[in-house]
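User: quick one, sequence for these tokens?
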């Protein structure tokens, strides 16, 4: 006959056996917030299209070269730059630039994408891309890659462009780019607008501003400087009136049939110039539109 003591002893034995059969569990330790990894530029970051962009300024110190006389470089949109020696600094001194077959420009008026490394005991910048400022304006604000999405809307604000903040992974759609501080030649701006529709876009220095309208709220980018890929743009040829009767606007001579139409008279006083899409064409002023309509009614 079981007594209370025997029952309790039996239950205790069963409990010990059960605990022995349970597999042990190792709990992984969460990483300590104090164990921060060094913010050096990894290979993955370096391969990103918007990473490792630098701004340069000349070293005006008066001492023997190569200890002086090179450049100070900094990663744009970042407070610290990883120098060739691995140190984190606001700016890094480099003794020279390895242009690596790219177009050589004034480094003080460019954004340069590349890699900081050591050459002959001193820091150097090995260049992979060169983006040249199109005006003499001093850039201010932050730096972005901007592309035109080809979107046009009836109501404002219309998010027609996308911007990617250089040396970050931040992207957003914006309601266009304003150029209050940038006044490049008209022909060059036409090429800028055309480049914005390409895969590389253009690089823009500036600041974001709020815009509101019937379509809601958005941001627009007020530019202080624009950068084009060096070697990727050239001066555009002027537009000319061509064709047998001067009824064609192009940047080269065009052949056409020589039948005369009365509406061709309208093109004699019309402006033949590059349009917003970068192509030559007659500017559709009210005078040209009404002239063409008048002749078509005859």
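Assistant:
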């Amino acid at each position: 006959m079981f007594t209370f003591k025997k029952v309790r002893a039996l239950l205790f034995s069963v409990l010990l056996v059960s605990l022995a059969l349970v597999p042990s569990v190792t709990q992984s330790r969460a990483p300590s917030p104090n164990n921060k990894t060094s913010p050096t530029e990894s290979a993955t970051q370096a391969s990103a299209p918007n990473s490792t962009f630098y701004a340069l300024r000349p070293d005006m110190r008066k001492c023997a070269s190569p200890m002086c006389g090179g450049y100070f470089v900094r990663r744009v949109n970042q407070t610290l730059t990883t120098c060739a020696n691995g140190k984190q600094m606001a700016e890094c001194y480099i003794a020279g630039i390895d242009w690596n077959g790219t177009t050589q420009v004034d480094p003080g008026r460019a954004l340069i994408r590349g890699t900081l490394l050591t050459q002959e005991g001193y820091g150097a910048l090995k260049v992979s891309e060169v983006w040249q400022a199109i005006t003499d304006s001093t850039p201010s604000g932050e730096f972005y890659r901007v592309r035109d999405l080809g979107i046009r809307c009836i109501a404002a604000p219309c998010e027609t462009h996308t911007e990617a903040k250089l040396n970050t992974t931040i992207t957003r759609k914006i309601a266009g780019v304003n150029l209050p501080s940038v006044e490049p030649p008209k022909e060059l701006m036409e090429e800028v607008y055309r480049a914005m529709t390409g895969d590389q876009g253009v690089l823009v220095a500036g600041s974001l501003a709020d815009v509101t309208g019937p379509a809601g709220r958005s941001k627009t980018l007020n530019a202080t400087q624009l950068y084009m890929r060096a070697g990727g743009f050239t001066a555009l040829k002027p537009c000319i009136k061509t064709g047998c009767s001067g009824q064609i606007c192009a940047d080269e001579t065009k052949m056409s049939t020589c039948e005369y139409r009365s509406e061709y008279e309208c093109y004699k006083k019309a402006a033949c110039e590059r349009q917003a899409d970068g192509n030559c064409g007659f500017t559709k002023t009210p005078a040209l539109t009404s002239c063409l309509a008048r002749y078509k009614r005859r």
